[in-house]
Every structure is written in C-alpha cells, then in structure tokens.
Amino acid sequence: MITVAEMKTAAETKITAEQFAIFGGVPLFSEPLHVGQPVLSDREQLLADFDAVMQSGQLTNHGPKVREFESTVACMTSVRHCIATCNATIALQIAARAMGLTGEVIMPAFTFIATAHAMEWIGLTPVFADVDPATHTLDADSAEACITSRTSAILPVHLWGHVCRPEQFASMCKRHGLRLLFDSSHAFGCQSNGVSTGAFGDAEVFSFHATKFIHAFEGGAIMTNDDQLAERCRRLRAFGISGLTEVSDVGTNGKMHELSAAAGLRSIKSMPAILTANTDNRRAYADICDTVSGLSLTPVPRGNFSNNQYLVFTLDEHRFGLSRDQLVSILRAEGVFARSYFAPGCHRSEPYRSDSTGRHVPVPLPVSEQLLNSVLQLPTGMAVSVGQIRQIGRLIASLHRTCHQIQRLWSLCDGRVKYHHADAAAPRNLTPPVPAFREAG
Ligand code: T4K
C-alpha cells in the first residue's frame, strides 16, 4: 500500500507527463488554492462587532457602522464623499443614473461582465473599445474612435488595480462634453502618482466583494468630490426618497447594511497585513517567471501604487509549449485553481455577441482578443503561502519541461480533458477529470 509520504513525494516530483493529476497522477494540493480567497482575520473581534450591531437593533438604513465605514473610506482616499452600497454593480447603476447618462457608454471589452451589464440593465448601450497591451486598461485612442453623437460617458476600468491615465480621459471627456465614471472595483488602496483612487473623474466605484482587497462580504461605494452628484447618489440609493414623506426620483435599494459595514471596517484594519502578503506573493511569482520561458507577470504600471490583489500572467503558448487553457486545466487538476479572467470578453457574451447592429463593437479589438487568449491569474492572497507559490513554480517548470510529452498524451485523450473548461466551477474534490491514462502499446 502506498504511504502518505510516498504520495506526497509523488505529487511533488513530477518528471513524466503521466505523473500529472490530469492524466491520473497524485494532485500536488489536496485542498485547492484560490485566486480570491477572502481574508477573515480577527474572527473573534468580527463576531463581537456583529453581536454589537445586533444588540443595537439598527441593522440597516444608514446606521452608525455604515456612517463610520463611509467616513473611513473617504478619509483614507482624501475624497469628499463616499456613498456605501450593497455592491459595485448597483453602485455603477446609481452613479450612471445620478449623472443623467443616456445612449451609449464607452468601456473596455476586456473587463468583468458586470461593467457592461450594469449599464445595459438600466437601458444604456455598452460600447466596447480596445485596451492597452501593457496596462490592460482602456486605450484612449480606441475609446475616442467610438465616440458618436449618442455617447454620454466614458467608463474606464482600473483593471487589476492598474490605474487608467485619469488626466488623459478627463481631457478627452472635456473636449467632447462627456461624463467620466471609473469602474475602480479592483483598485481600492491603489494610487496614480501619489493620488488615491476614488478621486478621479466625476465619480469612481469601488467593490468590496468577498474576493476583493478589502471586503464587506458584499459591498460597494461611489466616490466623488461633487457635492450635488453625491446628494443625488444618496437619494437614488434609497428609493429616491428625499424627506420623510417626499419622493423626488425613481430610486432603487442599493444600501449597505450594518453587518457588511462592520466586516468592511474590520477588513480595513487588516489592510497592512494583506498588502504585505500580496506583495510577498508578487515577488515569489516574479522569481518563477524569471526562470520559466513564456510565462510573464504583468508589471504594475509606472507611477502606480498597487494593492497587488490580482497577480496577472500572460502565457506565450509557443515559448511555453502549452496553451493557456491547457495550463489552466492541468493546474486545476493539481489543486491550483487558476482563472482565465475575463475570457471570453464582454463582446463575446450575450446579449452583445448576438447583436447584429454592430453598435456594441464599432472598432477592432486586437489587443483584447490577444489578452483574452493568453492571460491567467494564479492563486494569491493570505490563504496562499510563499512556500506554496514555490511549489506551484516547480510544477509549472515541470510542465514546461515535459510539454511535448503532455501534448502527445493530450491528443491521445481525444478531447476528453478539454471538457474541463478553463472557468468551470471549482473542483472541490480533486478527482482527476480523466481516468488514469496510459499510452496504448
Ligand atoms: N467591475 C469589475 C471590473 C469587477 O471585477 C466586478 C466584480 C464588478 C464590477 C462588480 O462588483 P460587485 O458587484 O461584485 O461588487 C468574482 C466576484 O463575484 C466579482 O465580485 C468580481 N468582480 C469578479 C472578478 O470575481 P467569480 O465568479 O470569479 O467569483 P468566484 O465565486 O468564482 O470566486 C473567485 C475565487 O475566490 C474562487 O476561486 C473561490 C474563491 N472564493 C470566492 C468567494 C466568493 C472563496 O474562497 N470564498 C468566497 O466567499 O466573480
């Protein structure tokens, strides 16, 4: 009978293709490692905070915890107004409505689907422009080429916490008489040339979802220095009610509740520790990329300070020897739950894909297409240790070394491994996706 120690050694040292879990070998990790595992440090204190909220009897409707959360975030970012919401998707909609947007809104094709759907849901038309190959954020020339008489705003995304060039978009919007709203879902705690995110454009929107740098389980916030816009956002967040009995707008219910705010405040207290872990992880992955041909870690843009919450890699299939989707599938079988955000891209998702008018995709998107096929994210956060990252590095190096054998086995598997799609649900039990496979003869 094989011992636990022997199994561990077999999992650690993979020399031949058959030893990889996707072909029936022992997975490297028995518990999957994730990209966005939420940090819940100081659990005792968090439970005490929850208890205090419940004791107070004020569970929602702009209670003291939400007010404290808003003033803390406003103070940290040096922005006049923080309007806390139940999530970033609703925050984007409230901000767009409060700005009076109409017609078309220009945004990158390479973003999470929420950026586009948030606008479509309120009757606006998302128009997809291309991104910059170095920063993965909205390309200003491509965005400008999309402007028509129907455009009312530009919605750049600080993807991966990479801050878009705010001055460039501000001057473009001024020239064309457009509003500027940033989707800063990934960028809480980031800076561009010493200025914190939250302060750019007419408004910015943060996400405090469980997978984000700072989280409130679910949550979001609209940030603005515009007093009137802030007032309108506050009203729209709470049904459009402007007094005890007065209703002055069609509003929604976008409020953050007290338990979320309490979790958000606790998460903010852990920020230095999370940042240190994220930065250490970046360094450990950078060392791996130095030694593995074809795998590169996307750098933080010049002048940016990053929360390093997303560690984003590009894979050169020809130099590495395996495609991005093959690598993601193989890693997942090993318990390394890599992601291929944001394939297939907004423009290739419904309803935009099936729209025959061409209004969603007026310009070519060569950089987005290329990134959508080559980008992957590897596990990080406080739940992943530098030691585990080094193990992942050794695994990736072995995959590169044995890529020819892997390709041969892969083709003999006749597509059976391919069902294990790059972004299928997390395999909690790590049964290999194909039965142990041996080359015939
Ligand atoms: N704009 C942009 C650019 C965004 O990226 C997002 C959201 C938004 C707008 C909208 O923000 P919100 O309305 O959500 O505030 C996740 C998140 O659900 C989503 O918030 C986020 N972006 C997006 C990038 O990622 P999934 O479908 O990838 O989540 P999921 O459940 O697969 O989780 C990712 C990994 O984290 C998994 O490998 C498992 C792990 N995980 C996740 C959760 C939720 C945990 O370990 N524990 C957990 O509780 O969308």
Give the number of domains. Answer: 2
CATH topology term of the largest domain: Aspartate Aminotransferase, domain 2
Distance between the termini: 27 Å
| Ligand catalogue | ligand T4K
What number is the mean pLDDT? Answer: 92
Radius of gyration of CA atoms, rounded to a whole number: 23 Å
Helix and strand string, N-terminal first?
Answer: HHHEHEHEHEHEEEEEHHHEEEHHHEHH
**In percent, how helical is the residue content?**
25-40%
Strand content of the residues, in percent? 5-15%
Largest sheet, described in full?
7 strands, mixed
Number of helices: 15
The first-level CATH class of the largest domain is given as Alpha Beta
Unreliable stretches (pLDDT < 50, length at least 5) are 418-441
Q: How would the global form be characterised? A: globular
- Let me know the CATH homologous superfamily of the largest domain: Type I PLP-dependent aspartate aminotransferase-like (Major domain)
Number of separate strands: 13
Helix/strand-derived category reads: alpha/beta
CATH architecture of the largest domain: 3-Layer(aba) Sandwich
